[in-house]
Every structure is written in structure tokens, then in C-alpha cells.
Amino acid sequence: MRDNAQLERFESRLVRGALGGAFAGLLFLLANMWFADSQGMPAVAPMLDISTIFHFSDQPEVSPENVVIGLVVHMTLSMGFGIAFSLVVPLLTNARTLVAGAVGFGIALYLFNFQVLGRLFFEWFQEGPNQLFELFIHAVYGLLLVPFFASALKPREATETHRPPVARSASGTA
After folding, report:
1. Domain count across the chain
2. Which residues form the domain of 28?
3. Inside any domain, residue 44
4. N or C: which terminus of the chain carries fewer CB neighbours within 10 A?
5. 68 φψ region: left (φ > 0), alpha (ψ -120 to 50), beta (else)
6. Total Cβ atoms within 10 A of residue 26
7. Residues 154 and 41: beta-carbon distance below 8 Å
8. Residue 76 located in a structural domain
């Protein structure tokens, strides 16, 4: 019976991670599209960039199919990263650590994806995207995962507040 409850909680976290990752990933993508457009690039540039992961190519190639490929790769990675975060959530015991952990997770994604994988395999991710914006939006991605896990936090037990006793006068008044 206890094993079933643990499995259900685990499955629930995985589903929350997939849904949270999809939600955060879509908003992340919209922000990247807006940023690309604000810099004079086509709004589909982020999806073209991400398509290089699928093709393992050095530079994005403009084509309608690469826009779709980039979207599918991005959403798949976003859901996978959300699921990965769900595995860390049990270590985050209150709202403060959940928020800090989520932002840290987003920053760690940026560091791993852009600074490690980007330097080793995907040069375009060092040349193309604005690194400061990517660092910021990855932190926001992590923050956007928080609502999907906040309700899973255990409520803190109410603590009694101990006030020092009030000194009473001889007449019994304070």
C-alpha cells in the first residue's frame, strides 16, 4: 500500500515536470522569439537555431521544415528538462528552496547547454544567441516551473509564538 502511494507521488511529479516543462518551454520560446524580433532577426530564428541540434550542423539553415524541427526539439527538451527538475524537487523542502532551486536549475541548464555542449559540439550556440539574454531566460524557465510543484510542498506546521508574559501590577492590570 505504501509503495503504491510512493509510486503515485513519483508519477505525479513526472507528469507535473512534463507539463511544467512544456508550459515554461513555450513561454521561454515566445520570449526568445520576441528578443530575436527586437534585434532585427526573424521571429523564427530561435527555432532555426534549435534545429541545428537535430541536424548536428554548425549553422542554422532557413527552411520551413527546420522551423518545425526546431519547435519539436525545443518542446521535447523542455519537457525532458521539466521531468529532470521533478526528480530534484523532493530535496527542496519549502517555498524558498523551491524557488532558489528552480532558478538554479535554469542557470545550470544554461551553463550545461551553452557553455559546455555549445563549446564542445554546437559552435553556433556560442556565436548566434545573445548569451546574457539566454542566461536570464533560462533562469526564468526554472522559475516558471515553480507553480507546478508548489502545491506538492508539505505545509509547515504552525509554530506557537511565545510572547514574554506581561508584567502585572499589584492591582492585576498590565
Report:
1. 1
2. 2-150
3. yes
4. N
5. alpha
6. 15
7. no
8. yes
pTM score of the predicted model: 0.82
Instruction: Specify the DSSP element, H or E, that contains 89.
Output: none
For cell 510512493, name the residue: 6
Q: What's the length of the chain?
A: 174
Q: What is the CA radius of gyration of the chain?
A: 23
- Indicate the residue type of 107: I
Distance of CA 142 to the CA centre of its chain: 2
Q: Which residues contact 117 (CB under 8 A, 6 or more apart)?
A: 125
In a domain, residue 171? The reply is no
Angle between helices 2-38 and 64-88 (to 10 degrees): 140
Assigned domain for 165 exists: no
Distance in Å from the first CA to the final CA of the chain: 56
